[in-house]
C-alpha cells in the first residue's frame, strides 16, 4: 500500500515536468510564429513600396513618351506641309521656266506627256542627271486655289460651307490621306485646332474627318433648325419662281437627303405664290417641270400687262362731247367704248369614244372640265362617275362650283392618244362643253 502511494507521487512529478516542457515548446513556437508574421508584414510593405515606386516611374516615363510622340507628330505634320509647299513652288518655277523659253502660244496639250519647248539652245539631259518631273496637270495654266480655313465661327452654315468648300477643293486637287492630314493641321484655327489636336489620332481619311467634324461643331438641334428655316421660307414678292424653287429644294435636301421628288414639289407649291401654285398644282411632277411651266406662266403675266398697255395705246377710248340741246348732261356709260376685238378661242376637235367633240384649249384652267350633257352623250350603259378629289372649282366669274364626278377618258387628237381624268360639272357652270386645261397640255408634251 505504501509502495503504491510512492509510485503515484513519482508519476505526478513526471507529468508536471512533461507539461512544463510542452508549455516551453508552445511558447517557443509562438515566438517563432510572431517573428515570421513580423517578417511577412515587412516583406509585404516593402513590396508595396517598390510597386508604388515603379508605378510613379512608369507614369513619368509614359508622360515623357507622350510628349515625345506628340512633338514628333507635330514635327512630321510641319515637314509634310513644307514638303508640299516646296513641291508646289518647284512646279510653279518649272512651269514659268517652260513658258518663258517657249516660242509657241498655249494650245491644246496632251495629258499623257508634259509640254517641252523645242528650242535649239536646250541641251539634252543625260540619264544620270535629275530632271524635275512636271505632272500632266502642270502643262496648262494651273487653277489658283487655296485650301479653305476654319476658325472661331459659331454659325451652322459656316460649318457646312467649310465642308463643301473642302470637297470642292479635293475634287479639283485630290490629296492623299497623309497630305490631307498635314494640310488640316495648318488650316484649322482657334477651337477647331484644339479639337483637331485631340481627335487627329482617331482620323485617317476625309470621310472620318467629315463625320467627326460635323458631329463636333454642328448643334444637336441642327435638323430642327433646318426644318424651321424650311417652314418659314416663302417666295418673296419680287423673287422669280426658278430661284425660289432651287433654293427651297436645296433646303429640303439639307433637311432630308432622301426626300422624294413628289414631296419636294408639294413643299415648293405650298411655299410659293398661291396664284402661281393654283396653276401648277396637279400638272407637274418634278422640280424641273415646275420651274419650266411656272416660268412660262410668270412670263405670260408680264406679257399681259404689256399687251393691255399696247391695246390702250392703239385703241384709245372715244370721248363723247356734251349735247347743247339737252343741257349739260353727263355722258352715260354706253357713250364711252373701247375699240377692242372679240377674244378668239382656240377650238380643236378631239375624239372621245368614237365621238367628235369641239374642245377649247384654256391655259388659265388648271384641270380639264366637261359638261354633264356631253358626259351623258358619250358614257356607256350603267357607267357612273368616280368621285372627284377636288372639292370645289373657282370659275372665271369668281363663283365656286362643285364637280359632279370624275371620268378617265382616252383623248385622240391627230396622232396623239392619251388617258386623262376629266372633271364633270353641271351644264350651267360651263359655257362650253369641253375645256382642256394645263393637265392636258402637260400630258401632250
UniProtKB/TrEMBL annotation:
Species, as recorded: Knipowitschia caucasica (Caucasian dwarf goby)
Protein name, as recorded: Retrotransposon gag domain-containing protein
Retrotransposon gag domain span: 187-271
Residues covered by region (Disordered): 117-141, 309-337
CDD domains reported for this sequence: retropepsin_like (cd00303)
Lineage: Eukaryota, Metazoa, Chordata, Craniata, Vertebrata
Amino acid at each position: 500500500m505504501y509502495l503504491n502511494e510512492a509510485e503515484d507521487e513519482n508519476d505526478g512529478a513526471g507529468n508536471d515536468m512533461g507539461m512544463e516542457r510542452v508549455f516551453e515548446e508552445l511558447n517557443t513556437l509562438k515566438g517563432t510564429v510572431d517573428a515570421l508574421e513580423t517578417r511577412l508584414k515587412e516583406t509585404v510593405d516593402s513590396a508595396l513600396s517598390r510597386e508604388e515606386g515603379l508605378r510613379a516611374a512608369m507614369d513619368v516615363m509614359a508622360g515623357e513618351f507622350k510628349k515625345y510622340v506628340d512633338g514628333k507628330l507635330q514635327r512630321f505634320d510641319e515637314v509634310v506641309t513644307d514638303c508640299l509647299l516646296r513641291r508646289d513652288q518647284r512646279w510653279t518655277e518649272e512651269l514659268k521656266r517652260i513658258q518663258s523659253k517657249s516660242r509657241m502660244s498655249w494650245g491644246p496639250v496632251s495629258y499623257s506627256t508634259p509640254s517641252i519647248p523645242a528650242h535649239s539652245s536646250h541641251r539634252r539631259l543625260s540619264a544620270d542627271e535629275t530632271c524635275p518631273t512636271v505632272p500632266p496637270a502642270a502643262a496648262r495654266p494651273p487653277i489658283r486655289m487655296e485650301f479653305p480655313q476654319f476658325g472661331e465661327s459659331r454659325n451652322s452654315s459656316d460649318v457646312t460651307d467649310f465642308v463643301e468648300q473642302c470637297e470642292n477643293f479635293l475634287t479639283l486637287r485630290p490629296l492623299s490621306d497623309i497630305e490631307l492630314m498635314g494640310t488640316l493641321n495648318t488650316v484649322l484655327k482657334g477651337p477647331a485646332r484644339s479639337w483637331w489636336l485631340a481627335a487627329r489620332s482617331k482620323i485617317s481619311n476625309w470621310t472620318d474627318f467629315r463625320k467627326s467634324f460635323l458631329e463636333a461643331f454642328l448643334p444637336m438641334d441642327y435638323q430642327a433648325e433646318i426644318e424651321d428655316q424650311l417652314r418659314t421660307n416663302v417666295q418673296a414678292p419680287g423673287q422669280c419662281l426658278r430661284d425660289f424653287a432651287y433654293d427651297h429644294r436645296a433646303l429640303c435636301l439639307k433637311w432630308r437627303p432622301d426626300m422624294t421628288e413628289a414631296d419636294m414639289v408639294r413643299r415648293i407649291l405650298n411655299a410659293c405664290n398661291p396664284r402661281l401654285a393654283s396653276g401648277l398644282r396637279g400638272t407637274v411632277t418634278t422640280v424641273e417641270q415646275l420651274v419650266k411651266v411656272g416660268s412660262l406662266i410668270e412670263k405670260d403675266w408680264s406679257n399681259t400687262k404689256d399687251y393691255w398697255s399696247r391695246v390702250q395705246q392703239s385703241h384709245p377710248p372715244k370721248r363723247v362731247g356734251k349735247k347743247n340741246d339737252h343741257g349739260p348732261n353727263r355722258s352715260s356709260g354706253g357713250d364711252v367704248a373701247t375699240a377692242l376685238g372679240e377674244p378668239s378661242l382656240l377650238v380643236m376637235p378631239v375624239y372621245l369614244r368614237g365621238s367628235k367633240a369641239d374642245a377649247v384649249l384654256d391655259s388659265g384652267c388648271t384641270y380639264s372640265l366637261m359638261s354633264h350633257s356631253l358626259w351623258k352623250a358619250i358614257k356607256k350603259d350603267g357607267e357612273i362617275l368616280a368621285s372627284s378629289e377636288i372639292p370645289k372649282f373657282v370659275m372665271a366669274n369668281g363663283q365656286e362650283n362643285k364637280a359632279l364626278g370624275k371620268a378617265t377618258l382616252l383623248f385622240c387628237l391627230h396622232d396623239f392618244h392619251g388617258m386623262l381624268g376629266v372633271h364633270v360639272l353641271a351644264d350651267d357652270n360651263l359655257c362650253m362643253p369641253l375645256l382642256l386645261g394645263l393637265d392636258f397640255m402637260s400630258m401632250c408634251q
